Protein 1
Amino acid sequence: MPHPNTACTPQPVTDPPPGPGPGLSVVLGGTGGIGAALVDALRARGEPVLALGRRTEPRLDYADEASVQSAGEAVAQRLARSGERLGRLIVATGFLHGETASGQRAEPERSWQHLNADALAHSFQVNAIGPALVMRHFLPLLPRQGRCVAVFLSARVGSIGDNALGGWYAYRASKAALNQLLRTAAIELARRNREAICLALHPGTVDTGLSKPFAKTGLQVRPPPQAAAELLAVLDGLTTADTGGFRDHRGQVVPW
Ligand SMILES: NC(=O)c1ccc[n+]([C@@H]2O[C@H](COP(=O)([O-])OP(=O)(O)OC[C@H]3O[C@@H](n4cnc5c(N)ncnc54)[C@H](OP(=O)(O)O)[C@@H]3O)[C@@H](O)[C@H]2O)c1
């Protein structure tokens, strides 16, 4: 019996044959610091790219699941109309500090004394639940044959094994949740297409609004265009052996 929700899952009308080029890249959070640099770098290569964010048309806002579903449907319609294949799905959304959906301020916690339900809920909404909805509404758009890549920008601080410093509870925990969601989706994706690659990627410290208040001297902070070039080099070099993994911007494995 089909799963009751499959009716809502957007599907391209036909699955185009594996073409020679990289296909269309869709960058979710393509309006953010790293996402916009990735969009620029892909456009500079002459590749087709679609940037989606809260201020684009269609709009993608994790506070509104319907917007994730309709953005997925819009991409499905474009693929069906143009005959393009979805070669790369890049999820560059994320939240570390700022205004939450309820209008309160959230900052990374230095101690358990700062734990706050609203900040925790918002971090999980943007860093884990939103990307999970993306898995539901966008992963089915990837082709069933041929190489394709779905990459979710995570963070080394989401690594449980690498956590020696403590602090930043909500960000760490929500990125750890993202990593588990991604690992699970990678297994399901491989059953649909053995050439599909699904990865968590740590971009390193990049000079964006997200990192600015916390970029201490000593950390290697890179400008977004440099980070984008490094991340694309990692994506270009991935093989199916890398699916379900967690890597950094140098291509090195990050412990879970
Ligand atoms: N910068 C770093 O040093 C660093 C280090 C480690 C990991 N990362 C990760 O890299 C990714 C990109 O970070 P960044 O530095 O480029 O951050 P950024 O400049 O703050 O961009 C964040 C992006 O997330 C989107 N976003 C936020 N809330 C959203 C919501 N409710 N619904 C949909 N989209 C939402 C923003 O959309 P709007 O444009 O509409 O605001 C923006 O496109 C994040 O996952 C981050 O955790 C960054």
Protein 2
Amino acid sequence: MIEDLFRNEVGDRKIFRDKSILSAHYVPHELPHRDGEIKGVTQVIGPALRNEKPSNLFIYGGPGTGKTCVVRYVVRKMQEFLDKPEMVGKDIIVKVAYMNCKIRNSKYQVLLKTLEDNTLNDGKLKYAPLEGRSEPSLKGMDPANLYDRLFKVVENNGINLILILDEIDMVKKGLNDLTYILTRINDELSSGSVSIIGISNDRRVKSRLDPRSKSTLCEEEMIFSHYNAVQLETILRQRVDKGFQPASIDDSIIRMIAAFAAQDGDARYALKLLKKAGEMSQNDDKTVVEMSDVERARDLVEKDIMAESIGLLPEHQQITIYSIACLASDGGIYRRLPGKGNGDLLTGEVYEIYETNCKALNRNPRTMRQFSAYLNELEMLGLIAMRLSGKGVRGTTRLIRLGYPPDEIKKIVMKSLGLTST
Ligand SMILES: Nc1ncnc2c1ncn2[C@@H]1O[C@H](COP(=O)(O)OP(=O)(O)O)[C@@H](O)[C@H]1O
Ligand SMILES: [Mg+2]
């Protein structure tokens, strides 16, 4: 049994040639359809190589539009360039620290990660942030102290430091403060500089910034547009050529995957679908990927994505979607507006269940106003759809419809909130 599983991994590679090419971490050597964006990022950070402070840059665009891979690609190219001292002056030091704000989600965490990052602790610097520490951590140090250390490292070494804050919209606390600090440091430095590249899926993050921080962060701005089906096809083909066995996947299949993913213009989704479809046919011991494999893969990938987006929601939004799912799967008990058909739920009745669930979980229910905001968020994520009812006995209200099977959603939330099924 387990031998079969292992054989599947190494044995007859009928479908895949090199599966690592399809992993989420793989950065291809070329990024088709992103020449302009690559050039744009290069021009923004390029001045660092002349010892000038690069402008700050704010990049936004939908998920899977290549923001992260373009920035990482340019950084990698710059690193290669810096490794050839004959090209760049010897005394020019450029350092790049990358972090994802899903994990580093506060001003403090960002500063800490910047200082603890390998890039500033490479042993060649005159003064490194971890100097004098018995262990490689600055945890527990107060923010003013962290600031001082950052200042000293940059100043004493004359570093042009580029901070890449990916998914910057995930910074919960102190986003304005953070931007402010980084402006201030440049005013105080007599040598070296600190610049930020902020990346976000969500352009609304700008509305959370005060005017001063906004003009700082958005000194330069780039928008990544969605990929169309033809572009996704090129991106998929590049991976197929390297990662799949020749002739194991037909053009028509690639086109079909590209067409599915083109609905959101999302390359990540396209690649997940490609990989999963390959796995489906591999599991069935086939030599070619078929349409039915893509169909099955699509269901699974959708489910994964839904689970991931629910898992990331704040607790009260999870309780909200859970309540919607309870009501949706328990259709008979609650009143429906006449003629609205099954599946449409009234905001009021969902709120009642939400209150009950909060109490059962020992949480304080939020107000109706906050609850409405949760519904908007859930709709934005595509987990529910809402529309206004016509004028009925209760006046106009919003009708809610769940975007996924209720039982799946209930399972995911229960797992995520650590509840056992009853
Ligand atoms: N132009 C491209 N060429 C090749 N692969 C790409 C391209 N754009 C995106 N990808 C791939 O698609 C996936 C998602 O891209 P990513 O940069 O993470 O998107 P974003 O950060 O905008 O959400 C990654 O696996 C990436 O390698
Ligand atoms: Mg990204």
